[in-house]
Design brief:
- This protein is mostly helical.
- The chain contains twelve helices and no strands.
- It has a domain of 196 residues: MetI-like (MetI-like fold, Orthogonal Bundle).
- 24% of the residues are buried.
Length: 328
């Protein structure tokens, strides 16, 4: 069968349009059949590449990508912490209930609670109520911590901004920082005696080093572009430190404060070994001499709760003073 003249003209026209579409795709819109073929090809390519497939209605499936952005580890953890505490308490209860561990080594939760009630009433060695022990220990820790903040932060900033200050203070801090407080406790007793000054000094020294190192690290982490920008605007050295360096180093300083107050609580027991008649550390040490493990465990729990409460307050202070942390 011989094609007609009209058929030849139609084929020629389609071929011409296809060639021009390949050269200038914007001037010749695709036909519906071509659009359908392209859509199917696109869908297949996206499916093979691991992308989101397209539904027949043309709407793309949305992925849940809310957790794909922001800093790692963000979100509330109170429910995880609560579950962990409950599990640990259950393990403690079961281990003592079935006598897997002797009461001399691990008293039951009931015996520990009874020891807490007795301590609140003052029915322990020495007759001092638990509240008095708590207040005395808190005053010692906070006094030493406040003194460390007032002195260690300026020293750390000076170490970060001055080569001379870093050369003087860095060897001293790095020398005594790894030493345990019990190592220089006898020397402090010889120098200061056995009154409150020796106890506060021991806690102060344990808080000073981590706080000074954190302040220095915060100063050294300030971006040089910020410092140069302040200098280019005519800022003096003091203005650069006060308006640029100190705000930028504040998150590191607050983290150092949290670490420092933790060291203060860990040094409390050692500090109250120095002829103390009251305090949580003294209560724990006195109970250990009489093998009162229930009072020892109770004292450890009270110290841990107090330290955790102070840490929560430091976290809240950190959120108030540095709201931009973790968001830049």
């Amino acid at each position: 069968m011989t094609p007609s003249r009209d058929d030849v003209l139609n084929v020629t026209h389609v071929t011409h349009v296809a060639q021009e579409s390949a050269i200038h795709p914007a001037t010749h819109p695709a036909t519906p059949a071509a659009n359908q073929t392209e859509s199917l090809t696109d869908t297949k390519g996206r499916s093979e590449a691991g992308g989101s497939p397209v539904s027949p209605g043309g709407t793309r499936r949305k992925r849940k990508t809310a957790n794909s952005y922001g800093a790692l580890g963000q979100g509330s953890t109170w429910h995880i912490s609560l579950a962990t505490a409950i599990i640990l308490f259950l393990i403690w209860f079961v281990a003592t209930r079935f006598a897997w561990i002797k009461p001399l080594f691990l008293p039951s939760p009931g015996a520990t609670f009874d020891a807490f009630i007795s301590a609140v009433r003052g029915d322990t060695q020495g007759g001092t109520p638990l509240l008095d022990h708590v207040l005395i220990s808190v005053v010692r820790v906070l006094s030493a911590f406040a003194l460390a903040v007032v002195t260690a932060v300026p020293v750390g900033i000076a170490m970060g901004t001055s080569r001379l200050a870093r050369g003087i203070a860095d060897p001293i801090i790095e020398f005594y920082r790894p030493l345990p407080p019990l190592a220089y406790l006898p020397l402090i007793v010889i120098w200061l005696g056995i009154d409150e000054s020796a106890k506060i000094t021991l806690i102060y020294l344990s808080c000073f080093a981590p706080l000074a190192m954190a302040a220095k690290a915060g100063v050294r982490s300030v971006a040089i572009e910020q410092i140069n920008a302040a200098r280019s605007l005519g800022g003096t050295r003091w203005q650069v430190i006060r308006l640029v360096v100190l705000p930028a180093a504040l998150p590191e300083i607050l983290t150092g404060m949290r670490i420092a107050i933790g060291f203060g609580w860990t040094t409390l027991v050692a500090a109250e070994m120095v002829a103390a008649t009251a305090g949580l550390g003294q209560m724990v040490l006195n109970a250990s001499n009489f093998l009162r493990t229930d009072i020892v465990i109770m004292g450890i729990i009270v110290i841990g709760i107090l330290a955790y409460a102070f840490d929560l307050m430091m976290r809240q202070l950190e959120r108030i003073l540095t709201p931009w942390k973790g968001k830049m």
